[in-house]
Amino acid sequence: MAGDRDVVVITGRGSDTFRRYGTETSFFDNHTELRRAVLDTSN
């Protein structure tokens, strides 16, 4: 878990808001997932 003085670098899919696994496509957005992770850890 990152501390108060730590730097977190998010490397990801850029502007893509989906990911593909074989023939399946699902929604995935770095901003949405990061926000969810931050909110989950602050509660």
Could you describe the 3D structure shown?
The structure is a single chain. The protein has a two-stranded antiparallel sheet with strand order 1-2. The two termini are 14 Å apart. The longest helix is centred in the last third of the chain and has 13 residues, at 30-42. The chain has 43 residues and is α+β, with helices and mostly antiparallel strands. The chain has one helix at residues 30-42, and strands at residues 18-21, 24-27. The chain has a domain at 15-43. Helix content is 30%, strand content 19%. The protein contains 1 helix and 2 strands. The mean pLDDT is 85. A hairpin with a 2-residue loop joins strand 1 and strand 2 (24-27).
Features:
19% strand; alpha+beta; 43 residues; elongated
Instruction: Give me the count of strands.
Output: 2
The chain-level mean pLDDT equals: 85
Broad structural category: alpha+beta
Helical amount? 25-40%
Q: Total helix count?
A: 1
Task: Tell me what portion of residues adopts beta-strand conformation.
Answer: 15-25%
End-to-end Cα distance, whole Å, is 14 Å
| N-to-C SSE string, H for helix and E for strand | EEH
Q: How many strands, what sense, and barrel or not for the largest sheet?
A: 2 strands, antiparallel
Q: What gross morphology would you assign?
A: elongated
Poorly predicted segments: none
Q: Strand arrangement, largest sheet?
A: 1-2
The rounded Rg comes to 13 Å
Task: List strands and helices in order, with pairings.
Elements: E1 18-21, E2 24-27, H1 30-42
Antiparallel strand pairs: 1-2
